[in-house]
Specification:
mainly alpha, two-stranded antiparallel sheet, 8 helices, 76% helix, 3% strand, elongated, Fungal N-terminal domain-containing protein
Length: 182
């Protein structure tokens, strides 16, 4: 069974790209940041790029007018998981900013600009970075499945997808799996 692609159902990708940009902007507004903080910003930029690629693929003239419901549900689940992580990051950033505002009502913006990055524990930054990386890999995997479906049809894609690696698997394993199945 296949269902039509409509902009509304995948319009979440556009709002997700905007959410990623908001998180990046909030994090980047703190100057003098640590290496781990910079790495998180880089991971978020690459995630945003992967989302933009998926958005472009879903809305090009060459894209199919319909896709299998299984593939559609898989892409929607990946988008939802990514959204949940980005929303959690943004809530934490806003909470840190509000905490500064409560303690230092006059100087909070200046403090955030100079050292907001110090409010995040190293483990927290590492977890956010790993989340961004795994979501980027997940989105890229969805994009590869969509490309495969457009190129070869659903039967080949379904075989590759049935044995798809879990979200936490490395990008190398994902690429290796695709080449093994294909």
């Amino acid at each position: 069974m296949s269902i039509s692609i409509s902009f509304g159902s995948f319009g979440d990708i556009v709002s997700l790209i905007q959410l990623a940009a908001s998180v990046i902007s909030r994090l980047a507004s703190s100057a003098g940041n640590s290496e781990r903080y910079s790495e998180l910003l880089l991971e978020l930029h690459t995630l945003s790029g992967a989302l933009a690629s998926l958005q472009n693929k879903l809305h090009t003239p060459r894209a199919p007018s319909c896709m299998p419901s299984e593939l559609r549900r898989d892409i929607e689940a990946r988008i939802a998981a990514c959204r949940a992580s980005l929303e959690k990051m943004e809530r934490n950033i806003v909470w840190q900013q509000q905490r500064l505002r409560g303690r230092y009502p006059k100087d909070w913006r200046d403090l955030w600009l100079r050292a907001g990055w110090r409010l995040f524990a190293e483990k927290e930054l590492q977890r956010y970075r790993e989340d961004a990386r795994s979501h980027r890999d997940s989105v890229k995997f969805a994009l590869s499945m969509l490309n495969r479906w457009v190129s070869f049809g659903f039967s080949t894609t379904r075989r590759a997808w049935r044995h798809a690696p879990h979200r936490r698997d490395s990008a190398f394993n994902t690429r290796q799996h695709i080449s093994d199945v294909g």
